[in-house]
From TrEMBL:
The keyword Transferase applies. It comes from Rugamonas fusca. Keywords: Aminotransferase, Pyridoxal phosphate, Transferase. This is Aspartate aminotransferase family protein. CDD domains: OAT_like.
Amino acid sequence: MNETRPASMASFWMPFTNNRDFKLHPRLLVSAEGMYYKDVDGNTILDGTAGLWCVPCGHAQPKIVAAVREMIGQLDFAPTFQMGHPAAFDLAEQLMAYTNHRFGHVFYTNSGSEAVDTALKIALAYHRARGEGSRTRLIGRERGYHGVGFGGISVGGIAGNRKPYGAMLPYVDHLPHTHNLEKNAFTRGEPEHGANLADELERIVALHDASTIAAVIVEPVAGSTGVLIPPKGYLKRLRELCTKHGILLIFDEVITGFGRLTTPFAADYFDVEPDLMTTAKGLTNGVVPMGAVFTKPFLYEAFMQAPAGIELFHGYTYSGHPLACAASLATLEVFREQKIVEHAASLQSYWEDAVHSLRGLPHVIDIRTIGLIAGIELEPIAGKPGARAFDAFKKAFADGVLIRTTGDIIALSPPLVLEKKHIDELFGKLAKVLKTLD
Ligand SMILES: Cc1ncc(COP(=O)(O)O)c(C=O)c1O
């Protein structure tokens, strides 16, 4: 027996996993390098999902590994409550530079979920700080995914993530989602139809009054709900309406940040300026957990008008952890040195053509692509939603490619350092899998 196999799998309550099925048929990864994982049986698996969208620079990136190793020997932990360490400040400056100084400040968290809850709290506290404390309502969107904190699931719109957990946050409303297979199937980039759905915000404003609404939060491209790409003009319209009504606009860029759309952020791709931006994942190349909320200068300034003392009663023990900061600083260096975003952009059309070559295969009812993301929607098996795509996931893994599925949608988001040969391998194997599905 392979010595790296765990003696028992009983005690680990696995997240977002069919535990009973997994423990009967485990998929155990033991190492990773570049574009590939190795599993416990020695098989090589092409990473079609950058882990969980979080490894843009590829696995075991030497510079990032070295930076974390060095930091752990130097400063294993340092508080950031009434204390600090240089890397946390250096990183904040570099992150702001990476946004071309369109944002002014960074609040560190440890995950995307915490970044979302932090952004929502900053939005609420901001309005209160400047005397508009009646703005307590938060607006999310159907099919949105904003992590698993109570704030995130309240503004999120995936039923399965909400229904076991009771009432959640009060004063939350949802915009409609923008997915429209009848009008927009097999689109490359932004779909034509649906910008008018942003106008639903007017309906919500008319119902509750703008003076009660603090913020709107959306994923510029929704990932976990199955790759929903905003219709042309939709995000710009949302921005206009938020500005008109004094509502803060939060972009949840946890998956779209750091090059995924072939621009640094989705805000760049869509040329829309949110007031706050949540990030995580690619921020440290997935090496050390970290999230960050980017805020426009006016937000921080509003808090600095308060009487002397702590301005924002919020933070995490590990906000700005030295290892996470080291990983993130090194990640930014790799982005610069290896021109990761430019490389991703150079592959975009090859990627798009490869994805759309799956059109016509059995059960494929939609294909959508943007940046280095793909969504491949399968016809569900009657009475068994999600089963067909999950079967594809298992078969693909057995054939040596890691894909991700949500419902009956296959979502692909490879490390941005991939080459054409990896695209060929990914879609060659995936096409074979799709042909074998019931
Ligand atoms: C858009 C978005 N927001 C938030 C999160 C939550 O991030 P985390 O799992 O790091 O808490 C995710 C995770 O996939 C995400 O896609």
